Amino acid sequence: xxxxxxxxxxxxxxxxxxxxxxxxxxxxxxxxxxxxxxxxxxxxxxxxxxxxxxxxxxxxxxxxxxxxxxxxxxxxxxxxxxxxxxxxxxxxxxxxxxxxxxxxxxxxxxxxxxxxxxxxxxxxxxxxxxxxxxxxxxxxxxxxxxxxxxxxxxxxxxxxxxxxxxxxxxxxxxxxxxxxxxxxxxxxxxxxxxxxxxxxxxxxxxxxxxxxxxxxxxxxxxxxxxxxxxxxxxxxxxxxxxxxxxxxxxxxxxxxxxxxxxxxxxxxxxxxxxxxxxxxxxxxxxxxxxxxxxxxxxxxxxxxxxxxxxxx
Amino acid sequence: xxxxxxxxxxxxxxxxxxxxxxxxxxxxxxxxxxxxxxxxxxxxxxxxxxxxxxxxxxxxxxxxxxxxxxxxxxxxxxxxxxxxxxxxxxxxxxx
Lengths: 312, 95
Ligand SMILES: [Fe+2]
Ligand SMILES: [Fe+2]
Fold this sequence. Notes:
The complex is a heterodimer of chains A (312) and B (95).
Chain A: H1 3-15, H2 28-47, H3 49-53, H4 62-87, H5 93-101, H6 118-139, H7 145-173, H8 177-196, H9 208-213, H10 221-239, E1 249-251, E2 256-258, H11 264-274, H12 278-291, H13 293-311
Antiparallel strand pairs in A: 1-2
Chain B: E1 8-14, E2 21-28, H1 32-43, E3 51-56, H2 68-76
Antiparallel strand pairs in B: 1-2, 1-3
Bound molecules: fe (ii) ion (2 copies).
Residues 75, 129, 132, 158, 161 of chain A line the site of one fe (ii) ion.
């Protein structure tokens, strides 16, 4: 079969909603796109543990602490499901992680913003996990089998992340005026970065068309962003929080909310590594790998010793 | 690839008594004991399992995807192995 015939057969499979599995033939570019997207997704889960992990010891009570710990542990699991999915495409895990540490691979720009107050933790659960869920639910039907299966498992676990955040904000918003103000301040800082999580606008998105054709993505960035805004407005109203956008209003004709243009200059600055926490986040990951090396070495040595005892 | 990368393990979980172990994913671990412990932490955080198997990925032998058509051909052509192949009169019951 020629290359062109293989590509036609491949696209026919995609069009018929047949999932692609690791050993199936696939175009190199499909493989590369998946490696880039899934590893970026995996890194986001792992780096995403940092801003929240920082608050585990400072959670206001034992219940909140247990919940936050469980959430952060879930994110570690999500990172692992996704690293496993990347590995099925023939790239080594070590390489994938080193690409993050060298700055070659990206992760979601949202995690380059600091979590300054306790209200930020609730807001992250509500808005950041909320935006992630919007994206991930769509990816449950992605064309690559291992990625789709990882997404299904992740989505099952994610919904508690958003609900615990919303519940925590609900508490703050019905508390003292200071607590309510703290929640509003978190909202003001996280709203726009949350909208940026959906990536560049469709007009500026380099990989979008091909990814839609290959059904790696099922919806465009702008479509998902719009769904997120539409779903979130009423939730903010119930909290009594104001969305920091004077142009946000219902558009009867479109059947959607209109909202202001995103500050793309800020978006690209953060993507390029100039956000408030980029350096800190990467440094924390590199440090974790380096300072954890002895644990991995000890485990390897112990496994060898045990194997020797067994065979003796 | 670094030489000290741990082996890859495939994880199979029995979700409840009476059901098969089912493949749920993979992970890396230095040996079977740690693979089982990691599998518990990664794949059964919400009581998804009562039993776990881990198998080193290199120990799995699989059919060749390129030969699949000819490999499975013998069963595809034998439609008389299915009950719907046979005609019985409408009045016949319990069959
Ligand atoms: Fe997650
Ligand atoms: Fe999450």
